Amino acid sequence: MKRPLLSTAMLLAAAGGLFLLVNTIQGCRPKTAQAAVGGDASSRVYVPPGKYDEFYNFVSGGFSGQMSVYGLPSGRLLREIPVFSVDPESGYGYSEETKPMLMTTHGSIPWDDSHHVESSMTAGVPDGRWMFINGNNTPRIALIDLGTFRTKSIIEIPNCAGNHSSPFATPNSEYVISGTRFSIPMGTDVERDVPIESYRDNFKGTVSFIHPEPETGKMSIAFQIITPGMNFDLSHSGKGPSDGWFFFSCYNSEQAYSLLEVNASQRDKDFIMAVNWKKAEQYAKEGRGRKVPVKYYSNWYNDETHTAESTVMEEVLQLDPRELKDIIYFMPCPKSPHGCDVDPTGRYIVGSGKLAALIPVFDFEKIKAAIAANDTDGDFMGIPVLKYESVIKGEVKKPGLGPLHTEFDANGNAYTSMFVSSEIVKWSLETLEVLDRVPTYYSIGHLCIPGGDSQKPWGKYVIAYNKITKDRYLPTGPELTQSAQLFSIDGDKMELLLDFPTTGEPHYAQAIPADLVRPREVKFFDINKNQHPFVAKGEKETKVERRGNEVHVWMTTIRSHFTPDNIEGVKIGDVVYFHVTNLEQDWDVPHGFAIKGAATAELLLMPGETQTLKWIPDQIGVVPMYCTDFCSALHQEMQGYVRVSPAGSKVELKAETRNVDAGS
Ligand code: K7E
Ligand code: CUA
Questions:
Q1: Degrees, nearest 5: CA angle 426-431-437
Q2: Residue bearing the CA closest to ligand 2, atom 1
Q3: Phi then psi for 43, rounded to 5 degrees?
Q4: pTM across the whole model
Q5: Which ligand gives the minimal distance to the CA of 640?
């Protein structure tokens, strides 16, 4: 979420007290603009030159559509991983091989808005294998391989609009989920073309269970549950005793379809939806769902052909909870809940009503008992609503204003971000008493503790991801940087150690020990395993070939030349494909490839990899090409020429690398 807008007088008149308060305060500014930082703070975040950070921090890029990777505790930016947005630096989304990664039923989409990063897990603990991230706008989920730090697969989610409640994972990564933010009409063209005011009758939500294949990371949708129309916001999987369940926060139980700012804040309580996914999975296997025609893309990057493959799926298995009565239940939750977080023991579920003045904590033991006893308060659109008093452990009283998200340490403490009062509040899961509070600068959204949404928090730090940084950094024009803040949680009191700027707007993040990731690193791609159809495994295999108006160039790079580097016989009207293979077999020796006037980005080729740049020459002459990555002392010599002749020219197509006798 971004900062709240100032309401008009009309809206204020229409709304109640807390709503007014929340919507007119742009996040309270703590009185001391400069936080007190202890004298030894710098030594606690200082990672000397040549030394490594202890944790990786994988942070969503928000409207950049990417994921960035920082080291902790230093806050140093290590990498930006291109995911949903094209990336000219690496050629992601520009090379012929990576283009299919961004394919959807709307065609190629070069951007998205990504909010939540989730770890793959084994036995409820992050395992350092994959990270997942959601695309909100054109609903997608991506899987990032931590061997290559690259996007390995992207799946589009059908019957979803605003994939916000996503991509949270089950304890063994059996599923990652997608809950739709917007409910929408679904079905045939006629069923979808309905008046907006028919929301209550025609609009439905979905939550989808997506299965990542353990060996390959390919993703497919196992099943999709249809829900009453409203908005799903966030979610987390159960674990331990609640393994087999999933919890989703829902707002807009008012079923408003206009001016939600006011109209979706009417009811005293919305819901947390509890989903028995083990049951749903069983029903799906028993064939008790309905196969519905849809279209969606599942894209997967093949590291041996070095090419993304798109598969178009044509149906999805839907389960209807009005028929399968024991798969979903609603639990009342105060005032438009946002975060929905499950503690490390798996017993407690924390709902953060962003307009509420308290934080309800639900007890899974009580939820089970209430379901068994049918202890309900009627139903909502045919789905049973459990009694609030029957499922609640208790409420955290007066925690602060605008609770959003909660993470946990290993010692029974919870840490909740407060957007409006700009602070992190630490409280006890046992007593529900507030233990400590610390200001953030400013307007914190998500927060993250290493392992803090898993069964094994590593603790040590809590990181705040802030929306506003006024007066914290040098100004940079109308938009100031977003930022993170690192606090120590080793002692009883939280302690601010470091501010560091972030790229894009950070939302959720994961932090995991570097030791989980480092042993997995792919240092280069084995050229012998390269199965790209246009690979040249040595300079002898390079060539040029005309296929009608297409010219294909098999090209290689090695320090510090291209083979071939002189190409003639290309004509106006041709489409040239440079298939460039980097022959290097050593860590961190990429070469780049760019040609003048190409309407695309460079190729950045990792050792052993083949990528293709498509070029449509539009001017007659001799056109230079060169390596863009400073690869050796003679990098600046790494260049070549392509001669472009008029259409119909008789110049023969040839490609070579020539020795020139300096004496002649
Ligand atoms: Cu709170 Cu989109 Cu997770 Cu951001 S959401 S803050
Ligand atoms: Cu290759 Cu510079």
A1: 20
A2: 591
A3: -70, -25
A4: 0.94
A5: 2
